[in-house]
Amino acid sequence: MGGSVSIPSAVSATLATTVAPRHSALVRVAHWLTTLCFIALLVTGIEIVISHPRFYWGETGNVLTEPLFRLHIPSSRALVPTGYGYVLPDQNGWSRALHFQAAWFLVLTGLLYLISGLLTGHFRKNLLPRKADLSWRALSTVIAGYLRFKRPIEEGAWSYNVLQRLAYLFVILVLFPLVIWTGLAMSLSFVSAFPASVTLLGGQQSARTLHFFVSVALVLFLLVHIAMVWFAGFRSRMRAMIAGRAGTDKEPT
Amino acid sequence: MSDLSRRKLITTGFAAAAGVTGLGVAARLAQKYGLVPPDSGGIYGLGETLTYASQRLLTRHSLAREFSRSQISKRPVPNEMPPLKEPFKRLQAGGFVDWRLSIDGMVSRPASFSLAQLKSYPSRSQITQLACEEGWSYIAEWTGVPLSHVLNLVGVQPQAKYIVYFSIDPDWWESIDMADALHPQTFIAYGLNGDELPIGNGGPLRLRLPRQLGYKSVKFITHMTVTDSLKGFGKGLGSAAPEAGYTWYAGI
């Protein structure tokens, strides 16, 4: 506090309390918890796939049946015909344990975020597209802006445009629920209580294949998300999501 | 320190204390109702406990999905090589007539069963899926005697909490809680797809647990112990799986 020379401390304190943060504390905490969980889920998910890099459709699938497709990578199991002359070390034990633990934290964080987001109006204010923005003209303006690589520094620093809103809502309300559903549908015990959760997906192996595809979609979102943050101004966006303060990359002097 | 931040600190302190107390109460309740798995001590213990506890609350009595004959996989995967060690080979040479399954521990009448004896009890069949932690699976028709039938014969004592079961392969042993042990689909299986259980699939005797992953369905079982604590077995984590880095509960 004492470091500020040009602004009296009383004024800066008023500013700090009256100016709402770019992202609420809850959004920021949920964002980074989700990030942490997602990285753990991704790394362990890859490790689990390595033990059987083949995918099937229907209820069953194994080395004696024809796969829908297979990943051309080495495996951590000698039983899998990969075409590689070596077998990778088995990492499934800790990978599975961490995968499920991270999934629990992700689900709990997600629930907290959903409930508080509904109560505080976060979804309505920040994520639900405004009616006027859903016209083709408004949409094409935003798309054209992206195609021209226009840096959305000023307006983008304070609220999301319609494409961002649609993308975030799709990830939150479609991809995450789907990845959780397809994951649970692989659990023998879970589906014993809720058999429709797996039959609706076409079987246990279909659930596994869909889990893989939804995960790929989430990774694609992550890559585009990081690219856009970089493009919009990495430091200002990171500051907004860590400390809550918005603004441009230019530091106040 | 201003009044505002002091009030905030006190509130936060109270909230934290309430949270810790709440967790403590939750932990004690979970322990009391048997919702804590034996391998809950490690860094993944919290996730493990959440999974096992919620599965126990939701799926205690639910039945594994059963399939139609037409869904049976053409070739049931033998997976691992049969143990070619001396004790197994000797019994195999004798056509497994000397194979025994002994049951001891917290039972009123410890007993040792031959294959013929087990086959003389009312047999049941189930067409269920066997899924491996690696991701593959197959469907087969398993025939055997429900474990609950045999447990009734030996008379399980009321304080029993777990069944520990051992393969002839000394590195492979597992345990289950009483909910799984008394579950109607938990079999001592000796038949597969209308035939003898092949050695590659665990013959002559395999514990079949269709609501958990394949590694809990121990092949070549010879011995079971009924107990109220898993502390005295191996490293006390419940089974060989946690000692190899895998989870004790494998319903997910």
In quaternary terms, these chains amount to heterodimer
What's the β-strand tally of chain B?
10
Structural class of chain A: mainly alpha
SSE arrangement of chain A, N to C: HHEEHHHHHHHH
**Secondary-structure content class of chain B:** alpha+beta
β-strand amount of chain B: 15-25%
- Count of alpha and pi helical runs of chain B: 7
Number of helices of chain A: 10
Largest sheet of chain A at a glance? 2 strands, antiparallel
Q: Largest interface by residue count?
A: A-B, 39 and 41 residues
- Give me the side-by-side strand order of the main sheet of chain A: 1-2
Provide the CATH architecture of chain B. Alpha-Beta Complex
Tell me the radius of gyration of chain A.
23 Å
Tell me the number of strands of chain A.
2
Distance between the termini of chain B: 50 Å
| Poorly predicted runs of chain A | 1-18, 249-253
- Give the C-level CATH assignment of chain B: Alpha Beta
The helix/strand order of chain B is HHHEEHEEHEEHEEEEH
Helix content of chain B: 25-40%
Secondary-structure topology with pairs:
The complex is a heterodimer of chains A (253) and B (252).
Chain A: H1 9-18, H2 25-50, E1 54-55, E2 69-70, H3 92-120, H4 122-127, H5 136-147, H6 153-156, H7 162-184, H8 188-193, H9 196-199, H10 204-242
Antiparallel strand pairs in A: 1-2
Helix pairs in contact in A: 2-3, 2-10, 7-10
Chain B: H1 3-32, H2 45-59, H3 86-93, E1 100-105, E2 111-114, H4 115-120, E3 124-131, E4 137-146, H5 147-154, E5 162-167, E6 173-177, H6 178-181, E7 187-192, E8 195-196, E9 206-208, E10 221-227, H7 240-243
Parallel strand pairs in B: 1-10
Antiparallel strand pairs in B: 1-2, 3-4, 4-7, 5-6, 5-10, 7-8, 7-9
Verbal overview:
The complex is a heterodimer of chains A (253) and B (252). In chain A, 63% of the residues lie in helices and 2% in strands. With 253 residues, chain A is an all-alpha fold. Chain A has a domain at 121-253. The model of chain A is unreliable at 1-18 and 249-253 (pLDDT under 50). Chain B has 252 residues and is an alpha+beta fold. Chain B has a single domain (66-243), classed as Oxidoreductase, molybdopterin-binding domain (Sulfite Oxidase, Chain A, domain 2, Alpha-Beta Complex), CATH 3.90.420.10. In chain B, 30% of the residues lie in helices and 23% in strands. Chain B has helices at residues 3-32, 45-59, 86-93, 115-120, 147-154, 178-181, 240-243; strands at 100-105, 111-114, 124-131, 137-146, 162-167, 173-177, 187-192, 195-196, 206-208, 221-227. A 5-stranded mixed sheet of chain B has the order 2-1-10-5-6. In chain B, strands 3, 4, 7, 8 and 9 form a 5-stranded antiparallel sheet that branches. Classes of the chains: A mainly alpha (253), B alpha+beta (252).
